[in-house]
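In the design runs reported in the main text, the only information available to the sequence generator was the tokenized backbone. The following block is the verbatim input for one such run; it is reproduced so that readers can re-run the procedure and compare outputs position by position.
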């Protein structure tokens, strides 16, 4: 089911017409975390560490707090991600959702109401209406300048 959503569909709401199941949500995210999907990720070069992490705007997933999350795709980068994000004057929560295994690197940064989160989701998604009406959207977080200065642009993943 997750594979179908990732490959064929842009929006879970188009499949089901209701809130996304949190197990489907976690299943989708597990594809992009090397420690949760080692067989797939072992096919890639280990020369470079994971530099791109995901910021999630979650507003319509069952049993998951509405708000802003980060998925640290490499647990070794968590400290530097926290340092980078905590430069903001706002205090971030860094709470793990209930019932997730310890190795699942998803953290709630800030709670929000559905309307606020969906509107911000739409704003960072080039004002696409689908970003305001789906279950969640994804942005990327990386130290891109440092990576591009120290390696060739094709080296970050």
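Verbatim output:
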């Amino acid at each position: 089911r997750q594979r179908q959503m990732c490959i064929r569909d842009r929006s879970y709401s188009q499949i089901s017409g209701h809130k996304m199941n949190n197990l489907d949500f976690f299943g989708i995210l597990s594809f992009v975390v090397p420690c949760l999907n080692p067989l797939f990720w072992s096919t890639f070069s280990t020369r470079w560490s994971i530099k791109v992490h995901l910021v999630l705007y979650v507003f319509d997933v069952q049993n998951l707090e509405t708000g802003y999350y980060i998925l640290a795709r490499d647990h070794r980068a968590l400290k530097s991600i926290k340092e980078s994000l905590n430069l903001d004057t706002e205090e971030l929560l860094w709470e793990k959702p209930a019932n997730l295994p310890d190795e699942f690197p998803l953290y709630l940064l800030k709670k929000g109401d559905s309307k606020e989160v969906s509107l911000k989701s739409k704003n960072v998604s080039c004002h696409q209406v689908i970003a305001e009406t789906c279950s969640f959207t994804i942005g990327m977080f990386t130290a891109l300048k440092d990576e591009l200065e120290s390696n060739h642009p094709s080296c970050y993943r």
